[in-house]
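Reviewers asked in the last cycle whether our approach scales beyond single polypeptides. To address this, we selected a multi-component target totalling 475 residues and predicted its structure end to end. The input consisted of the following lines:
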Amino acid sequence: MSNTKNTKPISRRNFIATTGVLATGTIFANPIHSFFEESSGKKVRLALVGTGKRGTGMFGETLVKRYSDYVEFVGLSDKNIGRLKYAQKYIGADCPIFTDFEEMMRTTKPDVLVVTTTDSTHDTFIIKGMEMGANIISEKPMTTDEHKCQAILDAEKRTGKKVTVTFNYRYAPYKMKIKELLMEKRVGDIVSVDFHWYLNTYHGASYFRRWHGERKNSGTLLVHKSTHHFDLLNWWLDSEPEMVFALGDLEFYGKNNSFRSKRCLGCEFKSECGDYYYDIKTSPHNMKLYVENEKYDGYIHDGCIWRENIDIYDKMSLQIKHANNVLTNYSLTTYSPYEGFRISFNGTKGRIEAWEGIPWQNKKRDQRLVYEAEMSQKKDAKTEKYDPIMVMDNFGDYEEIRVPHYSGGHGGGDSRLLNYLFINPDAPDPLGLNAGTRDGSMSILTGIAARNSIESKKPIFVNDLTDLTPRAKKR
Ligand SMILES: NC(=O)c1ccc[n+]([C@@H]2O[C@H](COP(=O)([O-])OP(=O)(O)OC[C@H]3O[C@@H](n4cnc5c(N)ncnc54)[C@H](O)[C@@H]3O)[C@@H](O)[C@H]2O)c1
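The resulting structure, written as structure tokens, was:
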């Protein structure tokens, strides 16, 4: 059923060997620890809601095949019964399935609920899940607006339960190396940042085909996608965003084209659309997960990227002032020839430049396969390749720092995150990798502030959005 060849469960010994690189420094309090305390050393009893791509992949099949010594599924839930039945087989979980979420919580009483539904529904399951006795592991973005965000913060306080937000990008060795350099103040105090993220025409377009294209589902890409980038920024800078001014528009996808259809499958404009046409039949998994189950909920996974009801931005530009006075210029592009990012940290003693995916600075990649590789749950291993970070000293020379390139999903971030979550939640966390609701809030609040700013044409203060006051760690 699955393509994953990597079925060997992970041993604790392997885990320690693969994380040794960063195992120095202070032990930080780990919000995940309480899961294990409550399960008193036994396997963690997991329930999962949202059996789509992420729920069947990283949090489904991968957990069953590689983490079954540590976790067991006690229930799976989705509103789409067809997808749920397929997912149960695909994941290989020997547990009951439920279209009624509360019935699952009541009858299975999980230690931990994994939330992998569409973004705008996370709040319902996070809050109800805690109220019904579980700790929560939620996919990013934690939620999609400031009111839902506040409700999650309140529910966490009220119930005494814990929410972990799975910021897998933090766990990629390249991102961790940047964090290390910043923590050791390699270029002094950081004063400003240039940060630009490019989605290629395959991956970028895919957001406009799927539910993400409507802000009622995703909160726009400023929330759905940029939450990763804003979280990295807050974590790297050890500071929270204070003020955001943003511009954005929809001027390529959606209503901007002269022709449109409902979906790619069977579309009469296939040849006019050229490489923007997506043939869902090339993915048997997507056919089984989505197309064969459209009859239950009407959801179309290969929707037309020129649909009139697309209402998210396709170009976005932000200025962000952090609580530690760092000023950031950030942009997100959704129809770029390549997938990647560039970031520069300007410090009082020099400058750090980092990038990923730039074809003439990295290995040339088949852009069509980049997204597949990002989502792949294949074995994470050190490769022969490396990714450079350039460090320049004022009045001095430059140094190239070579970070080993890892082959697993999201630059090796997915497997490292799962290891921390499920194998050894008490491992030292000197880089502060684990993220709770405060980090989950601050990353989305940047995007929500940007959305409000685009609409009001005014700067937005993050302080005004929830009861959280942005703060910075002392320099
Ligand atoms: N961290 C990452 O790198 C990463 C990567 C991909 C997806 N994600 C996140 O994972 C989540 C799921 O994304 P996906 O790509 O798997 O989407 P998907 O469309 O494949 O799956 C979403 C599932 O949620 C179900 N669902 C929606 N509303 C529901 C409701 N009210 N009750 C029960 N089930 C409901 C749908 O039926 C579907 O099966 C999203 O929040 C997304 O942001 C994170």
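DSSP finds 18 helices and 15 strands in the chain. We regard this as preliminary and will revisit it once experimental data from Aim 1 are available.
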